[in-house]
Every structure is written in C-alpha cells, then in structure tokens.
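Risk mitigation, structural track. In case the binding assays with cobalamin fail to produce interpretable data, a predicted complex structure has been prepared as a fallback.
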Amino acid sequence: MAELAEIANNFIRQEIEEYIERADERRRTIDTLAKASPRMQEIAAALIDGDNELTDKLTREALDAGVPALEVMDYGLIAGMGIVGIKFRQNFIFVPEVLACARAMKAGMAHIEPILSASGIEPAGKVIMGTVKGDLHDIGKNLCIMMLRGSGFVVIDLGVDTSPDRFIDAVQEHHAPLLGMSALLTTTMPNMGRTIEAFIDADLRDEVKIMVGGAPVTQDFADDMGADGYGKDAVACVTLAKRLMGVAV
Ligand code: B12
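Fallback model:
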C-alpha cells in the first residue's frame, strides 16, 4: 500500500486530497499513481487539467524517449482519466470539463495508436466494434480497437450510438466472425442484450461470437444476456478476442 507522499507530482497529490473522498478509490488511485513515473504523473496531470496541447506534447516526448506505449496508456492517460471520472461523478466538474479531458485523452492516444497498430503480424481475424445505441462514450472502445489492431485483428469501427440493425448489417457485409460491443451507461447496457436478441431473431447468433465491455459491465451481466465473453480492459479484450477466434494467446 503506497502513501500519498510517494506521489511526486504536486498537482496530482492535491487532486487526490481534494476530490477523492471514498477510501477504496483513494487507495486504488494512490497505488496506481505512486507506481507511475514522474513523467507519467505529468501526463496524467495534463489530462486532468484538460490541457490538450500539453498532453499531446508530453505523450510524444515520453514515447520518443522510449517509454513503452502501454505504460503511457495505463499510468499516464488512463490513470488521469480515472480521477476525471471520480470528479465528474461527484459533481466537482461537469460535461464541458470532461469533454476537454476527453480531447486531451484523444490527443495522447493519437501518438499511441500507430505504435500499437504497427505490428506486421498475420491477420488474426475480423472484428466489428461499436458503442451501443444511445451511448456516445468511445474512448475505451477506441483503446480496445487500437490494441486489437496492434495484435493483428482487422477492425471495422462502427463508432457510437450503434443500433442492433447496424451491428447485424456490418457482421453480414464484412463476414465478420467476431463482434465487440461497448457501453458506459447503466441505461444503455441493456442495449447489448437487445442486440444479441436481434441476432437471435435474425437467425444469425451462431454465425458470430459476441464480446462485451465497458466500465459498468460485469461478467455476470455478460453471462445473463448471453454474450460469449466479457473483458475488463483493452488487454483483456485482446486476450478474449484471441480466445474466441481460437488464436493462441
Ligand atoms: C469521458 C466521459 C464522458 C464524455 C465522453 C467522451 C467520449 N468521446 O467518450 C462525455 C462528456 C461526452 C460524457 C457524456 C455523458 N456521460 Co460520461 N463519462 C465519461 C467518464 C469520465 C470517462 C469514461 C472513459 O472514457 N473512461 C476511460 C476508458 C479508458 O475506460 P472505459 O470506457 O471503461 O473502457 C475500458 C474498459 O471498460 C474496456 N472496454 C470498453 N469497451 C469495451 C468493449 C469490449 C468488447 C471489451 C472487451 C472491453 C471494453 O476496455 C477499455 C480500455 O481499458 C466516465 C467516468 C468513468 N470513470 O467511467 C463518465 C460516465 C460514464 N458518464 C456518465 C454520465 C452520466 C454521462 C452523461 C449522461 C452526462 C450528462 N448528464 O449528459 C452523458 C451521456 C452521453 C451519452 N449519451 O453517452 C456516468 C454514467 C453513470 C451510469 N451509471 O450510467 C459516468 C460513470 C460518470 C459518473 N457519473 O460517475 N461522458
């Protein structure tokens, strides 16, 4: 268990002290950010501050200096977004601020994508990915897509607010054996189940493996709605995709 004082970055320490009230969240956040190098803490701080240009610059510099892309993603960008999420939930910040942070996240991810995608590995399979109907969150889905592409999958990205019919059309059009759905809202999670039902109604459920994910989704929820698998993060998404496609993990 790390201590707050072990986090070198002053701004991050203040953010945690001021905004992270729940003991379990405080513990998790401190543990993660204490493990992050000062450079990663700076990236997290720039993202929390919604500073698009600085996040862009610091991410580029870290990658140029040889910091692995996954480290920048997990200990810089995602660690920062974790604090943003808690501040948003507790009404310390609102949609405009979160949008600025999301823009900063995208600026950082733009540098990570080519690295994770430049694998030159044999295609592992074709995947359709989309955020379900009614849901506009796409940061996590896009991270999964980057990691899938980096692992040799060909990914067709349907974007956000994807209806069951669009998922079905895409699977048929691209002859894709795998579909991934993302949902970040408890109100849109049921649309994953509705999409699975639509595949059953169209007599296509046996043609495609379906994986699901997103912060509120759980293994139990995935099992209940009849998905073939659930992944908690982008790394798990790749492992799951490989397992479902029978590719060696
Ligand atoms: C950024 C953000 C926004 C941005 C989205 C920008 C964008 N382009 O995505 C904006 C400002 C637009 C937004 C809007 C809203 N949001 Co919002 N948002 C967030 C926030 C802060 C971060 C989400 C995020 O990007 N996380 C980082 C990524 C990396 O994590 P992730 O998405 O979970 O993805 C990972 C895993 O889940 C997994 N994964 C994801 N998808 C998939 C798919 C598969 C197949 C697999 C295997 C794995 C997988 O891998 C990913 C990478 O590791 C969250 C808080 C949070 N902590 O989640 C709230 C949050 C999701 N939002 C929330 C709310 C309420 C809203 C709004 C309704 C607010 C409003 N009043 O308007 C609107 C809804 C708009 C809509 N219709 O979708 C709530 C949801 C509450 C609930 N229980 O449903 C949250 C939890 C905040 C809170 N209050 O606590 N939001």
